Amino acid sequence: MTSLPEARPGQKKLGLVIDLDICVGCHACATACKEWNASGHMGPLPDFNPYGEGAWGVWFNRIHSFEEGEGEAARTVHFPKSCLHCEEPACVTVCPTGASYKRAEDGIVLVDESICIGCKLCSWACPYGAREFDADEGVMKKCTLCIDRIYNEHLPPEERQPACVMVCPVNARHFGDLGDPDAEVSQLVAGRGGGDLMPELGYKPVNKYLPPRAGRMTPSAPVASGPAPHKASEFPGDRLLRWVDRILSR
Amino acid sequence: MHPAFSIIFFTTASGAGFALIILLGLAAPVGLLPANAGFGFVALAIALVLAAGGLASSTLHLGRPERAWRAFSQWRSSWLSREGVFSVLTFPPISVFGIGWVVFGTTAGLVGLCGILAAALAVATIYCTGMIYASLKPIHQWRNSWVVPNYFALGLMSGLLILHPLVRLWQPRAPGVAVVAMIAILAAWRLKEGYWRTIDTTSFPATIATATLLGRRGKVRLFEAPHTEENYLLKEMGFRIARKHRVRLRRLVRLAGFGLPFLLSLVALLLGGVIAVIAGGLAVLSAALGLVIERWLFFAEARHTVMLYYGAEGV
Fold it and tell me: B42 and B116 share a domain?
């Protein structure tokens, strides 16, 4: 059923909190996600032409890197992005078959692959690019918030969290119930001024992002100018290197 | 957005087909069209082939076409599902109408009511087609109030252009259809220009900064993409068209889609006879080419918010 479940007060909203201040952009979360999910609930996650030009495949987690600011004051920010499990997921309501649904009990957005017709409209309706089409099976795939880990009684309790959260070496990813204001994740969002991506669209993402801390915003003082640098031509070896460089640049 | 040929063919063909159903279903019962059974057969056959052919083509872009029937289930929330339901519901009444007209030679009474019912369902179908696009918040070029009127106007224009030479074949002195077709062309042209002006002069409120929560230190730019090769998102949503080509293709739409069909309809109106039939037929061919380019542009010019994460500063 692609109509959304009625929101209840105290609704459980499982999701992620991603700390843009400390993510180091190592892509471990993307790799761990791919590894777990390739054989998980939504698996397989196919790759096409994996070793050649034009390699592409289905991934649920992608790490973009941005730069904000100019020159010395600039800062690189690594930005992991996966399904935000929105409270108003248009990807669900546009689905003509009922394959896309939002779970009433925890808010996780899932695809029932056995009834998906692969019309791709859900991927058009998602502003965040969370859904990727599996051209092998002809159905749409997406992040499951590792539903087959978080409720998996075969795993030790400390491992019952999404693979991306488990693997993060710097603890930049947190998993919990964002519907509970007392939960650790909610406290983290409140304390750090976490927010929604593209809030103006009204999708009300459950996943929150913690913006980078202000830190040192002013550029460091310019280095005092020392003695003039040696002219390259003073060293015969440099002339050779310049010549080699010219030859190689052709 | 990637312009998939199956969807371009589907929206142009079934747009014309359902518009023809509207025109035939409404005009024949009140006696505005030739009552001849031969005319009814040919006109309805063209309408049904276009409508059904378009629908069949739309299943070609599905990953699992054999499950297409499932798309009728979610009409409560999905415009795509509603489009499927209304389009299929149109066929029984238009069939009764066609049998009444062609076999029993009447468009009055119950047969006429079926025509009007089919017309109403065809209106609902075209409305749903437009709303599939107009309801998508991430695509600024589609989520505006021009899209649905454009789908109606372009559909009715193509329906009238097809109807015109057909009517002439059975009723050589029928200037009315040409006049109505010319009015429809002008209306559709005006609406398309309005749509283009809107997408040229407005932009999406979201920026790379609101998409990433960054920007406190200044301008945000993509430093490194998540992957070096194209993925599904870039193939499907990352399609871009050069400004130079856009301008040329729009000119082609103005010429083939609106200008020439208008002039050819005018020629038909002034000269009549066999020349009118030929001019009317050429107007259909010209408009078909123009509308395919127009629909291609509708996709090619549409830009999705996901591109903000791949370096676009705005969409």
Answer: yes
